[in-house]
Design brief:
The protein is an alpha+beta fold. The protein contains seven helices and twelve strands.
Length: 430
């Protein structure tokens, strides 16, 4: 009978679409899964190589500072960062494959939904046609009314099944589209991270060039290298004296109510991995090294960070100013620095950076990468073994950026300057 044959043809058509459509989809999906597996294998290999480089960096960091050790350490750091870039590129490629896979899934589900809707529409039409026939017409066509109702019941169940399938497919499509949006956002983040890593590598190569220049200055003689270090110490002491004199001139009143109460978690750590190498105040290191801190205490904390380590803002705020005391050859202090003003009465300084990623007036959020660590400015020993982040916390009321007008070696260099009462122990808020 025509009605019975049409139902069979409809089911066969649906099966054909689902089988062959899914077959093509399955082949492509399997190909994408294999690509992802290959990317994961490569990712693991790169991570192993990075771990080996990190071990070498750690070994050099624990060795006595030498000219050769400094240059060798920079080369290892550069290689490590190059592998970091390869890892990010690997993640970007994987993200692209995942996005392609999601698009394939969405397209497959969309096609199936479209075909199922067509079939249901035809099914509804046939049901309406059959139900519009008179009882005599139905009996003539089927020969038996019971047979007709039995066929009609089967077709109705078939229609209900397809409707449920469409609902499931629509829900799946929505989920896949949401995943696609998330993955594309992740891809943007990975691309940004890749650019950041390229910047890290550039900063390391710049520092490597500086060390190559140092080799030329020292004529590859360790004794000459030591003389240069001693000269840096003397220049750093001169800077500390200039800064201390300027800060003594400040007479700024600090309102205790303008800053938050001490407590862990007020600020986040500026590095992902934290290892404190120097504490705040009159620690043994500070008092035993007056050439660095003039015997008046360390105005922040130092965190170990190999060159190129991402530095994050500890709280949302505004970039007040960035600077580089290294633009003058004999000014050894903060090197590249960033001052951030937060909305809770605190300000933070990040120093000895290899590069800055922000500019004055820019708004930043907690955890944003604002710079890369390094050893610009006065760092002893220089190179990978001395690379660190200097991090200071101040009461905003008591800090400003001022030029060192009366300085000899750092004349007119702009630098964060604070009254002594504005210094705060970072560990009171981290």
């Amino acid at each position: 009978m025509f009605y019975h044959k049409w139902k069979i043809l409809t089911i066969v058509l649906l099966a054909f679409i689902l089988f062959f459509g899914n077959n093509v989809y399955a082949d492509k999906a399997e190909e994408l899964r294999q690509k992802i597996d290959e990317q994961n294998v490569l990712l693991n290999q790169l991570k192993q190589e990075i771990a080996q480089y990190q071990d070498q960096v750690d070994v050099i960091s624990n060795q006595a500072n030498t000219l050769k050790g400094t240059v060798d350490g920079l080369e290892i750091t550069r290689k490590k960062l190059s592998k970091d870039i390869q890892i990010t590129q690997n993640k970007i490629q994987t993200a692209n494959i995942v996005i392609e896979q999601l698009k394939l899934d969405i397209g497959d589900k969309s096609n199936r939904i479209e075909e199922d809707i067509k079939i249901i529409s035809k099914t509804f039409y046939k049901i309406n046609v059959e139900e519009s026939k008179s009882l005599i017409e139905t009996l003539i066509e089927f020969g038996d009314l019971g047979e007709f109702w039995n066929e009609l019941e089967k077709l109705t169940r078939f229609q209900s099944t397809i409707r449920e399938t469409i609902k499931d497919l629509e829900d799946t499509k929505i989920q896949l589209e949401q995943n696609k949006i998330k993955t594309e956002k992740n891809k943007v983040q990975l691309l940004s991270f890749s650019n950041q890593l390229k910047g890290q590598t550039k900063s390391v190569e710049d520092i490597k060039k500086e060390k190559a220049d140092l080799l030329a200055q020292t004529k590859n003689q360790e004794a000459n290298y030591k003389k240069i270090l001693d000269n840096k110490k003397a220049l750093a002491k001169a800077f500390e004296d200039d800064l201390a004199n300027l800060e003594q001139e400040l007479r700024i009143t600090i309102d205790p109510n303008s800053i938050p109460k001490a407590g862990a978690g007020v600020l986040q750590w500026p590095l992902d991995n934290v290892h404190i190498t120097q504490y705040f105040g009159n620690t043994n290191f500070a008092t035993q090294n007056p050439q660095a801190y003039n015997g008046k205490g360390h105005n922040g904390i130092d965190l170990r960070a190999t060159t190129g380590t991402p530095v994050r803002t500890v709280l949302s705020g505004t970039i007040v100013e960035i600077g580089d005391t290294g633009i003058l050859p004999n000014c050894y202090s903060y090197g590249r620095w960033i001052l951030v003003k937060h909305n809770n009465g605190l300000s933070t300084v990040y120093a000895h950076l290899s590069s800055q990623l922000v500019s004055a007036g820019q708004e930043v959020k907690t955890g944003d990468i604002i710079a890369y660590s390094g050893y610009s400015g006065y760092v002893l020993p220089p190179g990978p073994s001395g690379a660190h982040l200097h991090f200071s916390v101040y009461a905003t009321q008591g800090i400003q950026v001022s030029p060192l007008v009366n300085s000899i070696n750092c004349k007119n260099i702009r630098i964060p300057v604070a009254t002594q009462k504005a210094y705060l122990n970072p560990l009171s808020y981290l």
